[in-house]
Amino acid sequence: MSPPELAHMAEHFYGYGRWDAPFWFIGPEAGMGKDGEDGLAVRCESWRQLGCAPIVDCAAHHRGFAFTKWHQHHPPTQPTWRQLIRLLLAFKGMNPNLDDIRAYQRDHWGRENGETCVIELSGVPAPNMRVPRDRLSFLSRRVERIRHQIREYRPELIVMYGVRQRKAWEQVAGTNFDSSGICHVGKAVAAIARHPVTVGGLLFSDTAAFALALGGANLAAKLANIRGLFSTPEDINDDPDSAPSKRVAGVYRQYNKVIEGTLAAQRIGIDRMLAECPHFRNWIERLAALPAGM
Fold first, then answer.
1. Which of 97, 115, 137, 150 has the smallest number of CB atoms closer than 10 Å to its CB?
2. pTM, whole model, 2 decimals?
3. Going from the N-terminus, what domains does the chain have, and what CATH number goes with each?
Protein backbone atom coordinates (compact mmCIF):
# COMPACT_ATOMS: atom_id res chain seq x y z
CA MET A 1 0.00 0.00 0.00
CA SER A 2 1.19 3.51 -0.75
CA PRO A 3 2.16 6.02 1.97
CA PRO A 4 -0.85 8.26 1.11
CA GLU A 5 -3.23 5.31 1.51
CA LEU A 6 -1.69 4.42 4.86
CA ALA A 7 -1.89 8.04 6.01
CA HIS A 8 -5.55 8.23 4.97
CA MET A 9 -6.35 5.13 7.01
CA ALA A 10 -4.31 6.39 9.96
CA GLU A 11 -6.31 9.60 10.08
CA HIS A 12 -9.82 8.51 9.15
CA PHE A 13 -10.41 4.87 10.18
CA TYR A 14 -11.69 4.65 13.76
CA GLY A 15 -13.12 1.17 14.17
CA TYR A 16 -16.41 -0.70 14.35
CA GLY A 17 -20.07 -0.37 15.18
CA ARG A 18 -22.14 2.82 15.34
CA TRP A 19 -21.38 6.34 16.51
CA ASP A 20 -24.87 6.47 18.06
CA ALA A 21 -24.40 3.26 20.08
CA PRO A 22 -25.05 3.44 23.84
CA PHE A 23 -21.87 1.56 24.80
CA TRP A 24 -18.44 2.78 23.69
CA PHE A 25 -15.06 1.07 24.02
CA ILE A 26 -11.94 3.02 23.07
CA GLY A 27 -8.53 1.36 22.91
CA PRO A 28 -5.01 2.51 22.00
CA GLU A 29 -4.94 0.69 18.65
CA ALA A 30 -6.29 -2.41 16.92
CA GLY A 31 -4.24 -5.58 17.05
CA MET A 32 -3.29 -7.82 14.15
CA GLY A 33 -1.33 -10.99 13.43
CA LYS A 34 2.39 -11.19 14.00
CA ASP A 35 3.04 -11.09 10.27
CA GLY A 36 2.23 -7.40 10.65
CA GLU A 37 2.91 -5.60 7.41
CA ASP A 38 1.61 -8.51 5.35
CA GLY A 39 -1.89 -7.87 6.67
CA LEU A 40 -1.94 -4.09 6.50
CA ALA A 41 -2.60 -3.72 2.77
CA VAL A 42 -5.55 -6.14 2.73
CA ARG A 43 -7.06 -4.52 5.80
CA CYS A 44 -6.82 -1.13 4.13
CA GLU A 45 -8.32 -2.50 0.91
CA SER A 46 -11.22 -4.04 2.82
CA TRP A 47 -11.86 -0.69 4.49
CA ARG A 48 -11.74 1.01 1.08
CA GLN A 49 -14.29 -1.48 -0.26
CA LEU A 50 -16.58 -0.47 2.60
CA GLY A 51 -16.40 3.15 1.51
CA CYS A 52 -13.65 4.37 3.85
CA ALA A 53 -16.30 5.21 6.44
CA PRO A 54 -14.88 6.22 9.85
CA ILE A 55 -16.72 3.30 11.45
CA VAL A 56 -17.64 0.08 9.65
CA ASP A 57 -19.21 -3.27 10.49
CA CYS A 58 -16.70 -5.49 12.30
CA ALA A 59 -17.70 -8.75 10.61
CA ALA A 60 -17.87 -7.16 7.15
CA HIS A 61 -14.41 -5.64 7.52
CA HIS A 62 -12.90 -8.93 8.67
CA ARG A 63 -14.58 -10.82 5.84
CA GLY A 64 -13.02 -8.34 3.43
CA PHE A 65 -9.51 -9.43 4.38
CA ALA A 66 -10.51 -13.10 4.69
CA PHE A 67 -10.21 -13.31 8.47
CA THR A 68 -13.50 -14.87 9.51
CA LYS A 69 -12.76 -16.96 12.58
CA TRP A 70 -14.15 -14.39 15.06
CA HIS A 71 -17.54 -14.53 13.30
CA GLN A 72 -17.91 -18.19 12.34
CA HIS A 73 -20.69 -20.38 13.76
CA HIS A 74 -18.78 -21.38 16.92
CA PRO A 75 -15.94 -18.86 17.10
CA PRO A 76 -13.05 -18.73 19.51
CA THR A 77 -13.20 -15.60 21.62
CA GLN A 78 -10.78 -12.82 20.76
CA PRO A 79 -8.65 -12.11 23.88
CA THR A 80 -9.24 -8.36 24.10
CA TRP A 81 -12.87 -8.45 23.02
CA ARG A 82 -13.65 -11.32 25.37
CA GLN A 83 -12.91 -9.31 28.50
CA LEU A 84 -14.62 -6.17 27.21
CA ILE A 85 -17.74 -8.16 26.35
CA ARG A 86 -17.62 -9.82 29.77
CA LEU A 87 -17.53 -6.35 31.32
CA LEU A 88 -20.38 -5.08 29.17
CA LEU A 89 -22.64 -8.04 29.92
CA ALA A 90 -21.87 -7.75 33.65
CA PHE A 91 -22.73 -4.04 33.44
CA LYS A 92 -26.05 -5.06 31.90
CA GLY A 93 -26.75 -7.37 34.84
CA MET A 94 -25.62 -10.73 33.44
CA ASN A 95 -23.17 -13.26 34.80
CA PRO A 96 -21.97 -14.38 31.36
CA ASN A 97 -20.40 -17.69 30.53
CA LEU A 98 -18.07 -18.28 27.62
CA ASP A 99 -20.89 -19.19 25.24
CA ASP A 100 -22.69 -15.93 26.05
CA ILE A 101 -19.52 -14.02 25.22
CA ARG A 102 -18.93 -16.07 22.08
CA ALA A 103 -22.44 -15.37 20.78
CA TYR A 104 -22.23 -11.66 21.56
CA GLN A 105 -18.88 -11.38 19.78
CA ARG A 106 -20.22 -13.14 16.69
CA ASP A 107 -23.56 -11.38 16.42
CA HIS A 108 -23.34 -8.00 18.13
CA TRP A 109 -19.79 -6.75 18.85
CA GLY A 110 -18.92 -3.80 16.64
CA ARG A 111 -21.83 -4.47 14.29
CA GLU A 112 -23.50 -1.72 12.32
CA ASN A 113 -26.89 -2.68 13.76
CA GLY A 114 -25.58 -3.41 17.27
CA GLU A 115 -25.23 -1.45 20.49
CA THR A 116 -21.46 -0.86 20.59
CA CYS A 117 -18.96 1.61 19.25
CA VAL A 118 -15.51 -0.03 19.30
CA ILE A 119 -12.84 2.46 18.25
CA GLU A 120 -9.13 3.20 18.63
CA LEU A 121 -6.83 6.16 19.23
CA SER A 122 -4.64 4.99 16.35
CA GLY A 123 -6.16 4.15 12.99
CA VAL A 124 -3.45 1.69 11.90
CA PRO A 125 -3.35 -1.78 13.52
CA ALA A 126 -0.17 -3.41 14.79
CA PRO A 127 0.73 -6.75 16.41
CA ASN A 128 1.69 -4.83 19.56
CA MET A 129 2.72 -1.36 20.73
CA ARG A 130 6.41 -2.15 20.18
CA VAL A 131 5.93 -2.41 16.42
CA PRO A 132 6.77 0.92 14.74
CA ARG A 133 3.74 2.89 13.60
CA ASP A 134 3.03 6.57 13.16
CA ARG A 135 0.83 6.95 16.22
CA LEU A 136 1.28 10.68 16.76
CA SER A 137 0.75 12.58 13.50
CA PHE A 138 -3.05 12.40 13.66
CA LEU A 139 -3.53 11.84 17.40
CA SER A 140 -4.75 15.34 18.28
CA ARG A 141 -7.23 15.36 15.40
CA ARG A 142 -8.55 11.94 16.32
CA VAL A 143 -8.91 12.87 19.99
CA GLU A 144 -10.88 15.96 18.99
CA ARG A 145 -13.10 13.95 16.62
CA ILE A 146 -13.85 11.37 19.31
CA ARG A 147 -14.66 14.14 21.82
CA HIS A 148 -17.02 15.73 19.31
CA GLN A 149 -18.79 12.44 18.58
CA ILE A 150 -19.27 11.70 22.28
CA ARG A 151 -20.92 15.07 22.79
CA GLU A 152 -23.08 14.66 19.73
CA TYR A 153 -24.28 11.10 20.35
CA ARG A 154 -24.22 10.99 24.18
CA PRO A 155 -23.54 7.31 24.92
CA GLU A 156 -24.44 5.81 28.30
CA LEU A 157 -21.07 4.23 29.00
CA ILE A 158 -17.56 4.87 27.70
CA VAL A 159 -14.75 2.47 28.63
CA MET A 160 -11.24 3.63 27.70
CA TYR A 161 -8.77 0.80 28.15
CA GLY A 162 -5.02 1.09 28.54
CA VAL A 163 -3.78 2.97 31.60
CA ARG A 164 -0.67 4.24 29.80
CA GLN A 165 -2.95 6.35 27.61
CA ARG A 166 -4.48 8.20 30.59
CA LYS A 167 -3.43 11.62 29.29
CA ALA A 168 -5.17 10.96 25.97
CA TRP A 169 -8.25 9.62 27.76
CA GLU A 170 -8.51 12.79 29.85
CA GLN A 171 -8.21 14.82 26.67
CA VAL A 172 -11.05 12.78 25.17
CA ALA A 173 -13.15 13.25 28.31
CA GLY A 174 -12.23 16.92 28.67
CA THR A 175 -11.75 16.41 32.40
CA ASN A 176 -9.76 14.43 34.94
CA PHE A 177 -10.78 11.00 36.18
CA ASP A 178 -11.27 10.43 39.91
CA SER A 179 -9.22 7.99 41.97
CA SER A 180 -11.43 5.13 40.79
CA GLY A 181 -10.81 6.04 37.15
CA ILE A 182 -14.35 7.32 36.59
CA CYS A 183 -15.75 10.66 35.43
CA HIS A 184 -18.78 12.12 33.67
CA VAL A 185 -18.70 13.38 30.10
CA GLY A 186 -21.99 15.19 29.85
CA LYS A 187 -24.52 12.50 30.81
CA ALA A 188 -22.18 9.67 29.91
CA VAL A 189 -20.20 7.69 32.46
CA ALA A 190 -16.58 7.31 31.38
CA ALA A 191 -14.12 4.89 32.95
CA ILE A 192 -10.47 4.00 32.49
CA ALA A 193 -9.62 0.32 32.65
CA ARG A 194 -6.46 -1.70 32.33
CA HIS A 195 -6.07 -3.18 28.89
CA PRO A 196 -7.99 -6.48 28.94
CA VAL A 197 -4.86 -8.55 28.34
CA THR A 198 -3.36 -7.24 31.62
CA VAL A 199 -6.08 -8.32 34.08
CA GLY A 200 -4.74 -11.80 34.80
CA GLY A 201 -4.42 -11.04 38.50
CA LEU A 202 -8.18 -11.49 38.86
CA LEU A 203 -7.69 -15.21 38.21
CA PHE A 204 -6.02 -15.44 41.61
CA SER A 205 -9.42 -14.71 43.19
CA ASP A 206 -9.81 -18.47 43.64
CA THR A 207 -6.52 -20.35 43.41
CA ALA A 208 -8.16 -23.77 43.83
CA ALA A 209 -10.49 -23.15 40.88
CA PHE A 210 -7.58 -21.69 38.91
CA ALA A 211 -5.54 -24.84 39.55
CA LEU A 212 -8.40 -27.09 38.41
CA ALA A 213 -8.71 -25.08 35.20
CA LEU A 214 -5.02 -25.75 34.59
CA GLY A 215 -5.69 -29.45 35.04
CA GLY A 216 -3.81 -30.00 38.26
CA ALA A 217 -5.16 -29.61 41.79
CA ASN A 218 -1.55 -29.96 42.96
CA LEU A 219 -0.90 -26.47 41.59
CA ALA A 220 -3.30 -24.89 44.09
CA ALA A 221 -0.69 -24.51 46.84
CA LYS A 222 1.83 -22.93 44.47
CA LEU A 223 -0.77 -20.49 43.15
CA ALA A 224 -1.87 -19.75 46.72
CA ASN A 225 1.74 -18.93 47.62
CA ILE A 226 1.81 -16.33 44.84
CA ARG A 227 -1.55 -14.96 45.95
CA GLY A 228 -0.30 -14.71 49.53
CA LEU A 229 2.39 -12.23 48.55
CA PHE A 230 -0.22 -9.57 47.78
CA SER A 231 -3.07 -7.86 49.59
CA THR A 232 -5.52 -8.51 46.76
CA PRO A 233 -5.39 -10.35 43.42
CA GLU A 234 -5.42 -6.98 41.65
CA ASP A 235 -2.06 -6.08 43.19
CA ILE A 236 -0.38 -8.95 41.31
CA ASN A 237 -0.38 -6.67 38.24
CA ASP A 238 2.59 -4.86 39.74
CA ASP A 239 5.41 -5.15 37.23
CA PRO A 240 5.70 -6.02 33.51
CA ASP A 241 8.53 -8.43 34.26
CA SER A 242 6.53 -10.34 36.88
CA ALA A 243 3.00 -10.03 35.50
CA PRO A 244 0.40 -12.64 36.51
CA SER A 245 0.89 -14.78 33.40
CA LYS A 246 4.64 -14.88 33.97
CA ARG A 247 4.16 -15.85 37.61
CA VAL A 248 1.81 -18.66 36.57
CA ALA A 249 4.29 -19.82 33.93
CA GLY A 250 6.88 -20.04 36.69
CA VAL A 251 4.93 -22.86 38.33
CA TYR A 252 3.19 -24.23 35.23
CA ARG A 253 5.51 -23.86 32.24
CA GLN A 254 2.99 -24.67 29.52
CA TYR A 255 0.45 -22.03 30.67
CA ASN A 256 -1.62 -20.66 27.78
CA LYS A 257 -3.32 -17.53 29.11
CA VAL A 258 -5.70 -17.29 26.16
CA ILE A 259 -7.12 -20.81 26.47
CA GLU A 260 -6.51 -21.76 30.08
CA GLY A 261 -6.99 -18.22 31.36
CA THR A 262 -10.43 -18.20 29.74
CA LEU A 263 -11.32 -21.58 31.26
CA ALA A 264 -10.16 -20.35 34.65
CA ALA A 265 -12.23 -17.15 34.44
CA GLN A 266 -15.30 -19.20 33.56
CA ARG A 267 -14.70 -21.63 36.44
CA ILE A 268 -14.03 -18.86 38.98
CA GLY A 269 -16.96 -16.69 37.95
CA ILE A 270 -17.39 -12.95 38.17
CA ASP A 271 -19.05 -13.10 41.61
CA ARG A 272 -15.89 -14.52 43.20
CA MET A 273 -13.75 -11.96 41.36
CA LEU A 274 -15.96 -9.15 42.66
CA ALA A 275 -15.73 -10.53 46.19
CA GLU A 276 -11.92 -10.73 46.15
CA CYS A 277 -11.03 -7.63 44.14
CA PRO A 278 -12.22 -4.43 45.83
CA HIS A 279 -11.08 -2.01 43.12
CA PHE A 280 -12.75 -4.06 40.41
CA ARG A 281 -15.90 -4.41 42.55
CA ASN A 282 -16.04 -0.68 43.30
CA TRP A 283 -15.51 0.08 39.63
CA ILE A 284 -18.33 -2.23 38.51
CA GLU A 285 -20.70 -1.05 41.26
CA ARG A 286 -20.14 2.59 40.43
CA LEU A 287 -20.67 1.98 36.74
CA ALA A 288 -23.85 0.01 37.45
CA ALA A 289 -25.23 2.66 39.78
CA LEU A 290 -24.45 5.84 37.88
CA PRO A 291 -26.76 5.51 34.85
CA ALA A 292 -29.81 5.07 37.06
CA GLY A 293 -29.10 8.37 38.76
CA MET A 294 -28.77 10.44 35.62
1. 137
2. 0.74
3. 3-196 (3.40.470), 199-282 (no CATH)
